Amino acid sequence: MSKMRINLIRATIHQYKCIETEQTFEIEKDITLLMGKNEAGKTSVLEALAKSNYFDSCDSKYAYNPTFDYPRSNKRNLDKTVGSPLAVTLHYHVSAELQEEIKLEMLLPVEGIGFSRITNYLGKHQIIDNAFEYQPLAFWEAYASQVDGNILKYRKKLANIRHAEGFQDFMKIVLPDASVEEITSLENIERFFENPHEWDNPINEYVFRRYLQPDIPKFMYYGDYHLLPSRVSLNRLLKEENLTEAEKTAKMFLKLADIDLDEVLHAQDFETYKTEIEITQANMTKELLKYWRTNQNLRIEFEIIREEIDHENINKKKKFLGFIGRKNAEISPSFETFLEIRVQNLKKMVSLPLENRSRGFNWFFSFWVWFSAIEKDNSASPYIFLLDEPGLNLHSIAQKDLMRLIGKLSSNYQIMITAHSPFLMEEKLDKVRCVVDKECGTCITTLDDEDDEETLFPVRYLMVNEQN
Predict the structure, then answer these.
(1) What would the mean pLDDT of 383-403 be, rounded to a whole number?
(2) Domain locations along the chain
(3) Which tens digit of pLDDT belongs to each residue from 185-196?
(4) Which positions ≥6 away from 91 have C-beta within 8 Å?
(5) Contact (CB, 8 A) for 240 and 248
(6) Most buried by CB count within 10 Å: which residue of 22, 56, 97, 384?
(7) What is the pLDDT at residue 443?
(8) How far apart are the two ends of the chain, measured CA to CA in Å?
(9) Residues 36, 13: Cα–Cα separation, whole Å
């Protein structure tokens, strides 16, 4: 069953880099494939979406920048624009489960099952076409008749309150004459007037903040620079300052391996982790090989080591510590702790650092680590994964394995992929959108509406092979 309680069903990119004219396209519930030639604008589509609601709001790379992101051909119009130009509008569908939750508290029926959110180049949002809107007086009349009759005589005054301060002023006026029951009832509805977003209608703001906003999926972009390193400093990971994408993947690896970073860094030695590491290595290998059929002789190995820093010669001397543990030791400035990842080939009896394996395997393994860690986290936010040309270095069989893994992930998340390879599109032609560079800039079309033969080449290839 999908974790997504709110699904993205359609996207409109107003203007972004090579997208000079407004483009709207449908999004699938599971996997959407963006097919197009090199430099057609596929990556720009993913970037435009990612920057509208990126999962890491502190990552400046995923914030709109009019200087670099606004189409250069339209820069003159930008200078004349009053306010910030629009970047993206996203259209959402709310699940039946979430609709029912809203109805239970809000009582009144709504017209529709979704809403849209506009994002401008300042990263500011505006909700439009919202089906979950209520007339305040109608809501308070329903509340009084179905939930608590003690507020009946106050319903008209409540309908005119717009914010928390207004509610407090209202309470000061009514308190002297209100009964104990009425005061309790009024205190119970204070939550409806918090209105931190300062909407004109606090009831609608409450519904958005309480029910919709937490489940609006955030975008997560995954590219080649997320490749897992063979060796990473755990001291750096603990600080969480200016981490590279590769280091962030290393944190995902530790999460997947159930290794507590703080605990490891404060441990005097690592014997207590030895058995756990061996079990984790075996489990990781078993799970990975369910999807990596290209070479079943591979085994994942990793270990935690501590190196003594030779401050005098600015060199590091590797020092493997003993195996009697003592927790809560101080982190010494004379030592640095590392995670090292290797891959062993049982057939050839060779063990190599991860980065010395093929780039295709490294990409696949890093991808598997990242998303397995997210899938393991039941508290994770809803995500839409944006994969930019995944598995570019993979053999065709491995690409099919990758799509099996992506198919598993798509049961819980929406996924968008830019692709060239027909092996990534096999049996998914109904999910393909064409990205084409035309005179008016990048355009996004359906297969039925596209006639550019070079763009359609992967599809033609699949059709010919099916006939043969």
Answers:
(1) 89
(2) 136-200, 227-363
(3) 999 999 999 999
(4) 8, 9, 10, 11, 12, 114, 115, 116, 129
(5) no
(6) 384
(7) 96
(8) 37
(9) 17
Tokens 């763009």 belong to residue: 455
Tell me which of 10-24, 38-52, 207-221, 265-279 is least confident: 265-279
The more confident residue out of 345 and 392 is 345
Q: Which residues, in sequence order, are bridge partners of residue 40?
A: none
β-pairing verdict for 6-13 and 23-26: antiparallel
Six token digits for residue 259: 């290794």
Contacts of 49 (CB under 8 A, 6+ apart): 11, 13, 88, 90, 219, 384, 386, 416
Hunting for tokens 């992101």 — which residue is that? 69
Q: Structure tokens of 421?
A: 């390879």
Place of tokens 């060796």: 231
Helix (H) or strand (E) segment spanning residue 263: helix 261-266
Give the rounded percent of residues in the chain with a pLDDT score beyond 90.
Answer: 58
pLDDT at 245: 87
How far apart (Å, rounded) are the C-alpha atoms in residues 440 and 64? 22
> Which position has the token pair 């393909």?
432
Is residue 361 left, alpha or beta, with left meaning phi > 0 and alpha meaning psi from -120 to 50? alpha
Cα 179–Cα 206–Cα 213 angle in degrees, nearest 5? 155
Write down the pLDDT at residue 312. 55
More confident residue, 453 or 79: 453
C-alpha 19/C-alpha 11 separation (Å) is 13
Q: Which DSSP category does 54 fall into?
A: B
Whether the pTM exceeds 0.85: the reply is: yes
